[in-house]
């Protein structure tokens, strides 16, 4: 049974908690404390779907899989960005879908799409609901209604090939569910984004997700060898081979298509043997730059651990990795986490190769508890965001990536843009969590005292940061997709002609524009 | 000064040679010897381009870069597949372009395209002319003429970033030219397809080429981090970051676009430090299957050498790796080549990790001369094809890829299809030259006694082999692109809807269809 997330907070409602006492003093000192509870009662707009359409959907899927109750429609309203949470907390449910449908399998998804084309219904594919870029906010105007296409019944492991080391997964599987099915086969996918506990396989594919173990297992798009999708124009089935030269790789056109080109109904991924050994360690670096140089050296030498991340001075001092011990770090410098997963022999070999490189570059080993503490807290940060929103602290994250030589400028410019927009008491923390031979990602966490209109406050800051990213030539998003929030900057990144190509593909696959209207491209 | 290839043979005319004596006896025994010289005099069709159009092109580029002489137009006619060579040898130059233009840089390419749109001229981008899939055979009907857009003047190293380890190369650089420019910077690209000596950077990108060192350096599409292209609708400039989630990765839509979507005018690739140590070794396996299992073990353990290839029993016995010593191999079994490139430390570390795995799986080290002999002969096989065509032996290659569990079926079915089509005395040799965690490529070399109509003879065999590939679910091409030759099988691989998407992209970027008409999609 999949746990439904809290409607106006991240994650499992049972895990919601007030701000830890350890952090309360620091937060009060920097931002002050203001009680900002969510509104107690919210009204979900009445479902505007015509009864005949509802009956038509019930004919397709059975009445028990066509749902209009307010509680569920509230849970299917938007994703989990801070603006999404702020709107939910304020009782704004204007984006609620009219109906939630739960098809079981590719053919039923295709049937729903055909029905939606016939009756001009907007369809929003729903996997885990963890979008932080407005990927679940469909344009409503001009449609007969908005349908949340919930993939919750599509949770099968469709095939396993132990020789080729591939597995075919249905899109509704959440991270832990997919790993549990694979673990029973002695396998792992190894994809652990911060949203792991709630995000879905289909969502990972549709958004080009990247996980905390990307150095070892690869980005999600690099793990995919095959895809099946239902589109208004029929089926797309791709994946003849690990790699080929049969024209452009159309798998890479479905990956990142954010539900705007089709509904991904199966994903074939490369898998690895379940690791029998896992070691996580901490390293200290005198500066963010020194740590980054070490990461670059490892990446360019082909010596990456499974996990490799580095916090800047500010993030290290706040010690966000341990929400129960915020501010409780006096060692200074910059904290790096290295993790090794695999057989004991593989872990030992890679660790023995990496360790002297890091030591030789000036890295100092941190306390033995640092690595395990990071593992323990790795999925906890989003819960802390809710606790801070409760006391009037606006918290949000944003991320980007660039080539190594551009990293110092990108880091400085995004920080400066955020502080210029939000004020000098703003806290901007940063870490590198994904590295490549040619560059890396930068992930920023921002905290500021909430203004009277926090939505406008954040919109201005986000715009300033996004402008800074594209001005340096960096990407507007390394692993969170375009959604509706990043759309204004997409043309700056891929050009007006690139956007035109995406529109042409959408027009071909979804000629009447029913799929996630307004997401990715207009 | 770029060496022009022989008009009706592969490669440098100075290196053309008759069939080596060592092979002559064997060939006579199996196929008989029939003298099949190319026709002595050929007539190039008169350039059909209207004088006003010629003058217009001369205005754009200067008269010295707009060429219509017969000798050059003959050299720009088709590529280097066996059917291409057979047509050239028979004096069929019906696909000759009307004019060869040599723009210098992106803006001049864009100007040529604008002119071609205005006057409805078909434009065939020309890099190295090594296509083996009919990628240079544009449809002529309905156009005011066929323009060969020769990239020979675009041979600059536009940028080098030693921190990010990237380099930006112009598309006209041939393999050795690119490597020479990079070597002066202490860098290498490491892309060595069999066509290396003549093929171009633009061609590598446009066809998703893969080289003999793909295990260590990666396929060409995996080396590309940025692309610039001129299209009839304007410029496409892609590559904000090593990887991102800003929608689908449009770089992967230009890679493999075969000149049908735009003309690639710059390619930014990741580069590596020039290796200071290179070691190549031979291994013997009792069977093709045992050798393949060893390759799979290495790939799935993350222990690939820089070069890893394996010949089946037939190819091993013929010893194609050494054209000067064909048939001179009595050790039996299957020959594997392993190559290691890098620093002495990196070479030693990888070799020390790989060697016990291969030994443990039953591999026996071959004579010390085997590895260096492979390196010596690695670009020679296409010259041998010409020598065999001279004596009436039809020789051609084809290649495919699939997932490991499907390899035995693919191998058997393609071989059976070729023998069924060409007769029982047909020689079918095979090797694996590109491996992935989830699968590998199969590269077949076919030799048969030439029939009266060798074009029809090969067309039937090629169709039978291609049918067998798609029937097993494999790709119709791992690294040779679609061109015109593979187009009939593309829909079987990516579906009618996949072809429709490619058409939609082409219609958006090239609305009047001037770019390489008939190549990739109709």
What is shown here, in short?
Two copies of one chain form a homodimer. The first copy, chain A, is α+β, with helices and mostly antiparallel strands and 522 residues long. Chain A is built from 18 helices and 18 strands.
Descriptive terms for the model:
homodimer; 522 residues; alpha+beta; Uridine Diphospho-n-acetylenolpyruvylglucosamine Reductase, domain 2; Uridine Diphospho-n-acetylenolpyruvylglucosamine Reductase, domain 3; Alpha-Beta Plaits; 7-stranded antiparallel beta sheet; 18 helices; FAD-linked_Oxase-like_C (chains A, B); FAD (chains A, B); alkylglycerone-phosphate synthase activity (chains A, B)
Which secondary structure elements does this structure contain, and how are they paired or packed?
2 copies of one chain form a homodimer.
Chain A: H1 21-31, H2 51-61, E1 66-67, H3 70-75, H4 82-89, E2 99-101, H5 106-119, E3 122-126, E4 146-150, E5 157-161, E6 166-169, H6 175-183, E7 187-188, H7 201-207, H8 214-217, H9 220-223, E8 224-231, E9 234-238, H10 251-254, E10 263-270, E11 272-273, E12 277-285, H11 288-300, E13 307-311, H12 313-318, E14 334-342, H13 344-360, E15 364-365, H14 370-377, H15 381-390, E16 393-403, H16 407-422, E17 427-432, E18 439-449, H17 454-471, H18 487-509
Helix pairs in contact in A: 2-5, 16-17
